[in-house]
Write a structure and sequence with these properties.
Blueprint: H1 2-15, H2 25-31, H3 35-56, H4 64-98, H5 110-130, H6 132-135, H7 167-170, H8 176-189, H9 203-208, H10 212-219, H11 236-241, H12 265-281, H13 286-294, H14 297-320, H15 325-330, H16 332-346, E1 371-378, E2 383-388, E3 402-408, E4 414-417, H17 420-426, E5 429-435, E6 438-443, E7 450-455, E8 462-468, E9 471-485, E10 490-501, E11 507-513
Helix pairs in contact: 2-4, 4-8, 4-12, 5-8, 12-13, 14-16, 16-17
Length: 514
Amino acid sequence: MSAFQSHLQAFTSVFGAMRIPADQIHQLEKSAPNLMVYALPVVFAFTLLEGFLSHIGEHKTYEKRETIGSLFVGLGNLAVNLLMKVVLLFGALWIYNVLPWRMELNWWMLAPCFVLYDCCSYWSHRISHFNRFFWATHVVHHSAEHYNLTVAFRQSWVQHFKTVFFIPVALMGFHPVVFFVASQISTLYQFWVHTEAIGKLHPFIEKYFGTPSNHRVHHGSQEKYLDKNFGAAFMIWDHLFGTFQYEEEKPVYGLTTPVENKTNPFVLNFHEYRDMLHDIKNSDGLKELLFFMFASPAKIYRHKAEKSVKQMNLILAEQASGERIAEIEKKGERVLKLAGIILILILLLSQTSPAQSNTKEPLPTPRGENMLFFLQRDPDANTVIYELNYNSAGKLDQDNPVKSSWIRYTEDGKYKDLTLIENKFAYGVKCKSLGNGEFEIRLRAYKKMPLYLKRSEHDNKYRIYIRDEGKDYLLKRVFVRVRGGSFWFPKVEYIDLITVNSASGVEILKRINI
């Protein structure tokens, strides 16, 4: 009996804390240290150091407009946190007082509280990627196309909606002060992982802890990196629930649909809500309205694309039935946009690459002093070529160093410019200077795959390269094999990419079977 009483007394000494009167909320607020404010000088010092090293070094990780946008978003978020501190503390206090297993203020309880908080943070983060309502509170964090410490400042001003995911930790009975300190430590921990200045750490650390390498994967937009590494301080949750991915090739940062305005914090914070309201306004009934609010962003994207295709088919049917030309002209702009979506669907994989054609009469191989690479598809009787773009002074155009055009073999081999739709949505390219005479080139049909335009070490001429596992491969030809299907929905059998190893000169063929 005495042993039982001893254990009961020990239990009640931990879980038998007295209620905290509501009128002591301000005293409780003072006893909850605001670690975020104390850490600000250190945070800004390291950010300035990283920015300075980026400025004087060859690897540029900062972009002026993006940095300004991050700072504006961060300052707004700091103000929101200061305003919400009392509100959230009052909510935590209310939960604490209704529980029968309240814990005393013991700092050793910070360790289990932090681990449980990190688990809830994993699920909050993961759900934010698969539910549009919560994605809207997180998308600002992924909108940066450069990865540096200022990305940590990009926290949504309405992220407190996600507090609901941390109620299970509060229900454990932790003292409100312990709960809030664990929350702030979690936020501060995630600051240092937003950098490219730190490479991979010891394998044990990379496997079980949140590191810059692991979090770079999370911000990558490549297929293998999408929706991976949701853990904050610990990667154990990603291992347990099948979302872990090591960093392999360099991630491509940013959203699949970039935000044009990079400085306005209101646009950065609320553009997804604007798009959501637009979709809700144009929804067909309650079911689609709820779908646009709570489905995953990927499913919503596919649904809107399929819906656009159906609308395009209706427009084409109206044209075939001989509707008045005046009515068709009014719908012209809409047709162009929908045609662009269809072209994207057709060419979704068309930048991956070339190989041997299975046609009886292989297409000619184009030649040219300024040609970088070319794209062909079978069946098709024409070729798209990509060449260096020189201005009237004979110098490479720094804004648009690569131009694309047709070789129309069906028209006696004439060279023709791409149409507006082809250039904007399909075969055109988007160029960005990386400094030191190098450029990043992306095909508009599939922006996730970067190509790199730079001078060859062998002859000092400009060439196009792709990068795989840290190595540069000279891109020569892209080939898409189509077998069956229709004009609008061709069945792509495989895509070939012919490259050359820059070091050995050996040609490498990579085939992607669809």
